[in-house]
TrEMBL record:
Functional note: Catalyzes the transfer of a geranylgeranyl moiety from geranylgeranyl diphosphate to both cysteines of proteins with the C-terminal sequence -XXCC, -XCXC and -CCXX.
Keywords: Metal-binding, Prenyltransferase, Repeat, Transferase, Zinc
CC per GO annotation: Rab-protein geranylgeranyltransferase complex
Pfam families in the cross-refs: Prenyltrans (PF00432)
Name this protein carries in UniProt: Geranylgeranyl transferase type-2 subunit beta
Family per similarity comment: Belongs to the protein prenyltransferase subunit beta family.
Entry-linked Gene3D superfamilies: 1.50.10.20
Enzyme class: transferase
Cofactor note: Binds 1 zinc ion per subunit.
EC numbers on record: 2.5.1.60
Residue ranges occupied by any Prenyltransferase alpha-alpha toroid domain in the UniProt entry: 21-323
Length: 334
């Protein structure tokens, strides 16, 4: 395949087809200084996830120091609950998805030991909170004590527990069997058994199988075919048939293809050119589609997508964990 990286290799022919790294770094750094803006308060429920997206994007842009380390760790710890889990922001209820973000941030900052020093019960308590969300009957996971089962939660639990070195707290075999039940005839996966195939769910199911060391269970050619059909003529990717393209699907689809060694089944040059059209070259950040408002979620996943494509100037991402490869290699001793 023709990848977009390599010295002297430009993507597309237009002058605006460059990655505006300093603008994106500034955009992410300034997110937290915009507390007077309505958007900040509307997204309070996403705060801890937002820190994970911003921090990871900055690492991939080779600017790991752009967010203050000590304040970031303080904020993460301030979101922890007595039950060991983490909420979106201080005073919010604990939820699996925020707990995963907390673990990913602490691992990225090499600060897991802060859980032992200043956290409420150390990493074992965090892991016990996550493990307690496994549904004993099905092997899948809930997002919180009241929630429904969703393969997003199963993946998140595997992600965080494996980063903490405590995946053996849960019944991995039972969870793997549940994922197999979510596989459809097209080779892709849905949110629960019998549900329509969706690229976001493909990422979570394949990612969980990768962490469990069971990618042998994936029908790679069939799934690769379904995933590669997600690319549209404009180069962008959609999440399921008949839907519009969206920059974040460069991650859900691209990382899934990378995990099953089929990333070369899509046109990487066209995808990279699409993603670059989604950036705001003046103010920084990426939107879901060209000309749309930017946000930290799409900024993170667009940059991670460019990383999968080995775009020049972007650090390597781990397609299983959506974290810098150098950090997961060190943490997991891969
Ligand atoms: Zn999106």
């Amino acid at each position: 395949m023709s990848l977009v990286s390599g010295p002297g290799r430009a993507v597309g022919s237009q002058a605006d087809q460059t990655l505006c790294v300093p603008k994106h770094v500034e955009y992410i750094k300034n997110l937290d200084s915009r507390r007077d803006e309505l958007e900040y308060w509307l997204t309070e429920h996403l705060r801890l996830n937002g820190v994970y997206w911003g921090l990871t994007a900055l690492h991939l842009l080779a600017s790991p120091e752009a967010l203050p380390r000590a304040e970031t760790i303080d904020f993460v710890l301030s979101c922890q609950h007595e039950n060991g889990g983490f909420g979106a922001a201080p005073g919010h209820d604990a939820h699996l998805l925020y707990t995963v973000s907390a673990v990913q941030i602490l691992v990225t900052l090499d600060a897991v030991d802060e859980l032992e020093k200043r956290g409420l019960g150390g990493k074992q308590k965090v892991a016990n909170y996550i493990a307690g969300l496994q549904d004993q009957a099905t092997g899948s996971f809930k997002g919180d004590e009241w929630g429904e089962l969703d393969t997003r939660f199963l993946y998140g639990a595997f992600n965080a527990l494996s980063l903490l070195g405590l995946l053996d707290l849960v019944d991995v075999a039972k969870a793997v069997a549940y994922i197999q039940k979510c596989e459809n005839l097209d080779g892709a996966y849905g949110v629960c058994p019998g549900a329509e195939s969706h690229a976001g769910q493909v990422f979570t199911c394949v990612g969980a199988l990768a962490i469990a060391g069971r990618l042998d269970l994936v029908d790679k050619d069939r799934l690769g075919g379904w995933l590669s059909e997600r690319q549209l003529d404009n180069g962008g990717l959609n999440g399921r048939p008949e839907k519009l393209q969206d920059a974040c699907y460069s991650w859900w689809v691209g990382a899934s293809l990378a995990m099953i060694d089929r990333l070369h089944w899509i046109d990487g040059d066209k995808l990279a050119a699409y993603l670059l059209r989604c950036q705001d070259p003046a103010a920084g950040g990426f939107g879901d589609r060209p000309g749309n408002m930017v946000d930290v979620f799409h900024t993170h996943f667009a940059i991670a997508g460019l990383s999968l494509l080995k775009f020049e100037g972007v650090e390597e991402v781990d397609p299983i964990y959506c974290m810098p490869r150098a950090i997961t290699m060190k943490t997991l001793h891969k």
